[in-house]
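Human: Cast an eye over this sequence-structure pair and say how the chain folds.
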Amino acid sequence: MPIVNTGRFDINYVEEGEGFPIILIHGLAGDHTAWFPQIAALKNKYRVIAFDNPGSGKSSKVQNPVSSADLADATLGLMDKLSIKKAHVVGRSMGGAIAQQMALRSQDSIQSMAMAASFARLDPLGSQIIKNMQQLLSWRKSWSEWAPHAVNLFVAPEFFNENPDLIKNITMLISDESRDMISYDHLATTCLEHNVIDELGSIKTPTLVMAGKFDPICSMTAQKWMVDALPDVELTVFEKSSHFFLMEESLKALTAIENWLEQNS
């Protein structure tokens, strides 16, 4: 996989397909592999780029504090390196926060924006959960001990109870001890400090807000704040799901994204 330098960070990315570009931005605890199902589905119609955020995967580690604006600059830098003047941007969780900063900084570069389980500001519950996960990792210094305490926050109770093998696989995935803990801690603080509620009114870019009804991290309260503030916005709620609704209701989520891209291409 190629790596490009965007100034402050080296960015590892994958690119598949041809057509109008789509930039896929993953969340706090993931990397570009979180997008494999969407890449497979979209590459026949679009030029799809997914990458590791700084601090994730094979991109540069984040050894010092970083803002969501810094991460947006890195993503815009990647677009520049790939000669992409305009793209759809799809962000999940922290990735949606980065997408907002991209639109605020370079609105002409964004054809449309779709945010999955994201936030313009975390509500008190979401903030407390992120702080708890930071604290647990600092206490135990072990992803394998951290993972069982986190996984139940990502999916709805019914999904957790009915899919034990899948929950075991997710737990193993986020138990990867090769992940950099310092980077995670800085990126978690990035999420806690992200607050652009008062700036969203200036974003004229068509925006799809996708929400999991049972999501405690990026709650329906946080979704309502975004919907109320954005001028050109649609809301899709996943009634059975939590933070990982792209997996919990995968067909509905993929259909929503595909319809949104077609509508705004």
Summary: The CA atoms of residues 255 and 261 lie 10 Å apart. The first strand starts at residue 3 and ends at 5.
